Amino acid sequence: MNHSTFASHFGVANRFVPKETSRRAAAVALVGRSIAGQAFELLLVRDVPVDHSVARPAAEPHQLPLAQRVFRAHRRPPPPTAPCS
Length: 85
Hints:
3-stranded antiparallel beta sheet; 26% helix; Alpha-Beta Plaits; elongated
């Protein structure tokens, strides 16, 4: 990424994903479709490292992997609409 990337409109999607391979693939695909459906450009896909040494042993079995997507919008979002009365 270069400096112009940060001057544009971009977002970050961080989410916990299931440990099970098929459920994880479905979750990742859902986020990918959502990003593409908004005409966003996907810039970065990565698994976020987790420091397992800081979790209590009782919590460790419940720690889910953390996945991240960084994306850029090429257009400004539309202005919010007024609520219907």
